Amino acid sequence: IGIVDIGSNTVRLVVYDAPARLPIPIFNERVACGLGKGLGQTGRLNPEGVELAMRTLGRFTNLVREMKVERFVLLATAAVREAADGSDFVEGIKHRFGFPVRVLSGTEEARLGAMGILGGSPKADGISGDMGGGSLDLVSLDMGEFGNSATLPLGHLRVAEDSGSDPSRARDLIAKQFDSCRWLGEAPGHTLYAVGGAWRAIARIYIDQTKYPLSVLDNFTVDAEEARSFAQLIGGQSPKSLEQTIGVARRRADTLPFAALVLGRLLEVTQPKQLIFSGYGLREGQFFEMLSPEMKKEDPLISACEGFAIRGGRFSVHGEEIASWMEPVFKDESENYHRLCHAAALLSDIGWTEHPDYRALHSFIRVLRLPISGVTHRQRIMLALAVFIRYDGKRRQYEVRQVRDLLSEKDQHRASVMGVALRFAHLLSGGVPGILPRTRLKMSKSKLKLIVDKASHVLIGETVESLFDDLADMLNLMGKIK
Questions:
Q1: Are 193 and 246 in contact (CB under 8 A)?
Q2: What is the pLDDT of residues 130-153, one digit of tens each?
Q3: What's the rounded Cα separation, in Å, for the pair 5 and 197?
Q4: So what's the pLDDT on residue 189?
Q5: Whole-angstrom Cα distance, residue 164 to residue 254?
Q6: Which phi and psi (to 5°) does residue 27 adopt?
Q7: Is 434 left (phi over 0), alpha (psi -120 to 50) or beta?
Q8: What are phi and psi for residue 170, nearest 5 degrees?
C-alpha cells in the first residue's frame, strides 16, 4: 500500500508492507515543500512550493511504479483544500502523472487522523488532536466510537504566519478559535491524543530534557499538568533559543513555539487526565481504512507479534500453543496480562539467530523498540523483560536497569514469572510443536503440578526438573511433576 500525503508543509510518500494489520513502512520519504506558506495572506498556494511539489511527486509516482505498489492513493489536506488554485494544482497532478488526488474535507481529515489512533488503540477514549502545517483536526472518541469533530486553522505554519510570529497575538488567535468548539470541554478527565510531527518534536524534546529512558514516541504518556507546563516553556522560547539550547533544527524551530502554544491551550480547554503522543496519524488511518473488515477486527498487538514470529521464527512452537499451555499459571491475572503473555509467547523465539552470549540482551533491545502498537510503555518494557529472562538474561545489565525502574516491583516480578515460564516451555518441548499439549500445568493454593502423559515421561530430565522447581519457587509454591 502506497500513500502520498500532500500537506501544507511537507509532501511525503510512505509505502507499507501489506497485507498486515500493523502499518510497517518499508519506504518513507518526506520533502518540505511549504505549499501552505503565505496561504492566509494570499489565499493561494506558494508558487515555489507548487514547483517543488510537482518535482517531488514526479519522483514519488515513478518510484511507486518501479516498486509495483498494488494500491496507491494521493491525499491532499488543508492547504490544497483551502487555496483558490487548489483545484488547478490537483488537475495538474492528474494530467502530468496519471493519478487522481483525493482532497480531504476537514471532517475526513480529522477522522482519518483519529482512525490512525484507533488502528493501534481500538478503545481510545478522549480527544484526538492532529496538528499539521495548515490545520488542527479534532475528534472526540468514546471507547473507539467517533463523536464531535472540527477542523481549525491552527496548524503551526498558519498560526506563525497569521500572528506575524508574535506570541501574544498568537495566544489571542488560538483562544478565539477554541472558543468556537464548546464541546471540547464537555468531557474532562479523559485522554488527549496528540498526533502530528510538530507535537512529536515536542515529545522528543521532553524525553531528552527529562532523560526519560525509553525513546519510543508511540504511546508516550505524560501527566496533563506536567505537559501543560512544558508546552508553556517551549511556547515561550524564541527559535534561536530552541536551536542553541535544545538543538532543534532551524526548519522546525521557527514554528515549534506556536505548535506548543496550541497544545498548551488545548490542554487547558480539554482538561484531560493525561496526554498521549501517538506515532500514528492520517496516513496510518488511510492504511487502516484500506484493510479488509476481518483484519480490522484483529488485535493490533497480537497481529503484529504474529507477523514478527512468522518472519523471524524457525521451527519454534507456535505462540498460541505456548500461551495456552502457560495459562493455568496466570489464571488469576487480568485479561490484559493474558494478552501480554500471548504476545510474549509469539516473540519468545525472536533471538534464535543471535550469538548465544548476546541473545538475551539483543532480544531485550529489539522487543523494546519493535514497531508494535496497542501497548503502553509499561507493557512494552514488561514484554521485553519477559523475553530477556526467557533467554536467561541477568537483570543487572545496564540496558535493563535503565528502563526497569519504570515498572513497579510487582510488574517486574510478573514479567520475570512470564519469562521463566517461557524458558521452561521451550526447554520442555525443545521447540517442537505438539509436545507441550502432552503435558499440562495445574496450580492450586500450595502446589504447581506438571502432569505428563505416560508416553512422554522420558522428556523429564534433571534440567527440566530444576527449571520447573525455579518456576514454582517464583510463585511461592511447591513443585511436583506427576
A1: no
A2: 999 999 999 999 999 999 999 999
A3: 13
A4: 84
A5: 12
A6: -155, 135
A7: left
A8: -65, -40
Peptide bond into 300 cis (omega under 30): no
Q: How far is CA 304 from the centre of its chain?
A: 12
- CA distance readout (Å), 19 to 1, 86, 179, 355: 8, 33, 43, 32
pLDDT of 357: 92
Map grid coordinates 514454582 to a residue.
472
State the amino acid at position 178 in one-letter form.
Answer: F
Are 238 and 165 in contact by the 8 Å Cβ rule? The answer is no
Read off the pLDDT of residues 305-355 as tens digits, 9 standing for 90 and up.
988 888 777 755 678 899 999 999 998 888 889 999 999 999 999 998 899
Q: What is the rounded CA–CA span in Å between residue 220 and residue 120?
A: 13
For residue 315, the model assigns a pLDDT of 59
Q: Show contacts of 313-318: CB within 8 Å, 24+ apart.
A: 313/349, 313/352, 314/349, 314/352, 314/431, 315/431, 315/432, 315/433, 316/348, 316/349, 316/352, 316/426, 316/431, 317/349, 317/425, 317/426, 317/429, 317/431, 317/432, 317/433, 317/435, 317/436, 318/433
How far are the Cα atoms of 22, 24, 167, 218, 416 from residue 370, in angstroms, in the given order?
A: 11, 10, 39, 11, 20
Residues of the chain with pLDDT below 50 are none
Identify the residue whose cell numbers are 487502516. 288
What pLDDT, on the 0 to 100 scale, is given for residue 285?
95
CA atoms of 267 and 189, how far apart (whole Å) = 11
Q: Are 142 and 44 contacting, i.e. CB atoms less than 8 angstroms apart?
A: no
Distances (CA, A) of 36 to 6, 104, 139, 281: 10, 15, 23, 20
- Mapping DSSP onto H, E and C, the string for the chain reads CEEEEECCCEEEEEEEECCCCCCEEEEEEEEECCCCCCHHHHCCCCHHHHHHHHHHHHHHHHHHHHHCCCCEEEEECHHHHHCCCHHHHHHHHHHHHCCCEEECCHHHHHHHHHHHHHHHCCCCCEEEEEECCCCEEEEEEECCEEEEEEEECCCHHHHHHHCCCCHHHHHHHHHHHHHCCHHHHCCCCCEEEEECHHHHHHHHHHHHHHCCCCCCCCCEEEEHHHHHHHHHHHHCCCHHHHHHHHCCCHHHHCCHHHHHHHHHHHHHHHCCCEEEECCCCHHHHHHHHCCCHHHHCCCHHHHHHHHHHHHHCCCCCCHHHHHHHHHHHHCCCCHHHHHHHHHHHHHCCCCCCCCCCCHHHHHHHHHHHCCCCCCCHHHHHHHHHHHHHHCCCCCCCHHHHHHHCCCCHHHHHHHHHHHHHHHHHHHHHCCCCCCHHHEEEEECCCEEEEEECHHHHHHCCHHHHHHHHHHHHHCCCEEEEC
